[in-house]
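Follow-up to my post from last week.
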Amino acid sequence: MKVRSNSDWLRELRASGEDQAAALGDLRAYLLRAARYALHRRWGRLGNRAPADRDQVAEDCAQESLLAILRRLDDFRGDSRFTTWAYTFAIHVALVAARREAWKAVPLDTLLDDPTGLARLGEPASLDADPDRMARRAEAWAVIRDVLDHELTDRQRQALSALLIEDVPLDELARHWHSNRNAIYKLVHDARRRLKARLESRGFPPGEILGLFAGPG
Amino acid sequence: MTPRPLDRLLRQISDTEPEEITCSECFDFLASGVERELAGAATTPLQARLAQHLGQCVVCREEYEVLRDFVRSAPADPALDAGAPATAPPDSPT
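User reply:
Got it. Predicted complex:
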């Protein structure tokens, strides 16, 4: 396979004729390799339970990522090797496909409507050798529960429950809600900011929160 | 061992920043971030923001880690042929 610099890749992919065809063929081979790797990471442990058409899935991912790269050639800033940048597309497409496969049979509506939702977060340890620490932890926990129960939107509660308790991938939640990753991330970020701000306003700095809840004390 | 949901929430609250990069911005910096990590380069403010996002976002973190491990395992310019099997990676939990 021909060794290309970043500028070689850009020039040949934007060219026509044999140069472009060769560059496209080589890039597709790189992408296929990356897609296979990513799918193997997700499905390698599943053995016979992995999809039978995994080779075809890898081929489809390579093709989809190749088209995405060609659409976004102008976005390549040159701050990495071109091939590393290209791999991000193949790996992203492959992992989204693998997550879709893993969650396609799960009824997210049922899961998101579960009334127990965030109640299943767990409870902090109620006992502590240090009574002052135990009291502070109980107070911090009450602040967190108050925000979760009364200050977040239903959608924020559902998102937190899905992501933290059910391990629903962000992609799948976004797909289910006809949204996108950025929007769901912001929804949860806003919830986290509110929780952090309320804790800080009640005298619980971020550095103290983890220590307060760590271990039985 | 996977942290309990409550512990994950507490960690995420603690590590929350007023401004965080989006998943799209994270995607745009994955390649340079991975190369900088593999080269042992000093942490830049951008790298720190990338790391902060990866600490909050499970799917972006998975994509970062798979990219990093793939780049680390793949020769810089592998002689590929269409029938070659994928580089055998270590298995990881699904």
